[in-house]
Amino acid sequence: MIETLVQGLLLGGLYCLFALGLSLMFGVMRLTNIAQGDLIVLGGFTAIVVAPMLGMSILATGAVLIPLAFVVGYLVQRGILSRALDKDPLPSLVVTFGLAIVIQNGLLEAFSADPRSLASGGLNIQSIHFGEQFAVGTLPLIIFAAAALCTFGMQMLFDKTSLGRAFRAVSDDKEVAELMGLNARTIFAIATGLAFSLIALAGFFQSLRTTVSPADGPQLLLFAFESVIIGGMGSFWGTFVGAMVLGLTQQIGFKVDPAWGIWLGHLVFLVVLFVRPNGLFPKTKG
């Protein structure tokens, strides 16, 4: 059971990375990104394409992928998403749904439906031993540490920096923030760039941990969405806790019966949604 719980927490670390970008975009722009899962898959395929150009160096691939994703996110926000931001959530849902369809079909045309993975140089099979009978995978530990650091970093950004205060200001009241001299379009574009960087990191780790295929997007979106809803929309530590709950629940379900894992995670999501519709931690600390 201890091994099951540890594996659940490590899986939750990956789900947290899936969900942080979604939480950020909702927290700043009140935008629910339906393309989240497909963007994660796109990040994974981009890493697979970029790695051979950099001599299959994992660190170099991540170092190129994350800033590249920031630039793409900034441009997507300025060119596409900014036109859909409105008090009515329907336009943004339609636009991001369309973006998801374009990404998925573009990946199918470019890579076919075959699953692919990023060569990890053996990292995905290495483990750290604790005693004679217990071992933890090195890559899942790295993913968990990255999730915790990203969550901490995003919360500190919101709490302690002028950019974080600008994020909170335009989120609370865009018109008043602009009267105070803030450029809401630029703030939104920076937030989207950061979200895309987190999404790219999630895709990078997903392609290292397992395979990615163009059809994976909807399932990854579901895991991200459930993590955010369990924790609370717009709450970074809430997203972290929600991802841990989802990962633990799935692993316990898999332990009982291999067919129960995903189903039990969905069931816990529905229970939380019924008992606490706003999630466990419904607002980013301000």
From TrEMBL:
The keyword GTP-binding does not apply. GO terms for molecular function: transmembrane transporter activity. It is a multi-pass membrane protein. It comes from the Bacteria. It comes from Eoetvoesiella caeni. Its main location: membrane. The chain crosses the membrane at residues 6-27, 39-72, 92-113, 134-158, 187-208, 220-246, 258-275. Belongs to the binding-protein-dependent transport system permease family. LivHM subfamily. Keywords: Amino-acid transport, Cell membrane, Membrane, Transmembrane, Transmembrane helix, Transport. This is Amino acid/amide ABC transporter membrane protein 1 (HAAT family). It is found in: Cell membrane. GO terms for biological process: amino acid transport. The keyword S-adenosyl-L-methionine does not apply. Coiled coil: none annotated. GO terms for cellular component: plasma membrane.
